[in-house]
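Appendix B: a complete holo record

For completeness, this appendix reproduces one full record from the ligand-bound portion of the collection. The bound molecule is fe (ii) ion. The inputs are the chain sequence and the ligand SMILES; the output is the full three-dimensional arrangement of the complex, encoded as structure tokens. No fields have been trimmed.
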Amino acid sequence: MGHPSHSVDCGSLNDALRLPPICEFELSTQPLPAQRDPLKPLDRQEVLNWLSENVPEKRLNHILRVEETAIKLAQYHDLDWERAAQAGLLHDLAKYFKPKRLLELAKADGLDIDPMDEINPHLLHADVGAIVARDEFGVCDAEVLAAVRNHTLGRAEMSLLSCVVFLADSIEPGRGNTTELNELRKLSRKNLYRAVLQTCEDSMRSLFASRSLVHPRVLQTRNWALQMAQQSIKGDKPKLSSA
Ligand SMILES: [Fe+2]
Ligand SMILES: [Fe+2]
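The structure of the chain with fe (ii) ion bound, as generated:
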């Protein structure tokens, strides 16, 4: 999923991004590495240095555009832009991990592995990215880590911050400038749930067209987003299937 280019003023991103004072999130029972202070603010430059050694320049540029897009979308919807920035910066940490390493790290952390993940371990780069954010950079903000985990497949009941990062990954300027993408960009400003719904349906349409497997989480995200979109538009109860 992906899009055009315009400049964004993100001067304040040059400052270290602050984490909330309470560490409230654990992905597993494994303790943080001893050398990490979980209350230490996220050092953006430290993350950039790590990324420059672990992802190609092209991907790093994508990550920076996702960070910028997430900030703008969060600000547009009155959400916490600093958390959006952190999640955007961290979202693709594990993008270039080999399939074996992704599966090993996910299993070692006790994640539920769907059969689709076994077939296509690359889908785990989102979940494993959150593990790396926690272990490598001491990130312990539950919402930021969830937004990293949810950036590829989404998740039913995900937060608005997760919606912002999920969408930012799809609509960042480098993804292109098609009519459909520009419509999705407009929709992302208008209604986050409708934009998530559209993204999931576009993705599923494309996967069906190429006879590819569809991860069940995409459908779960789509069904949830449909209900939330209906609620947000009409103020009604969502229509639930009786099946
Ligand atoms: Fe990704
Ligand atoms: Fe990405």
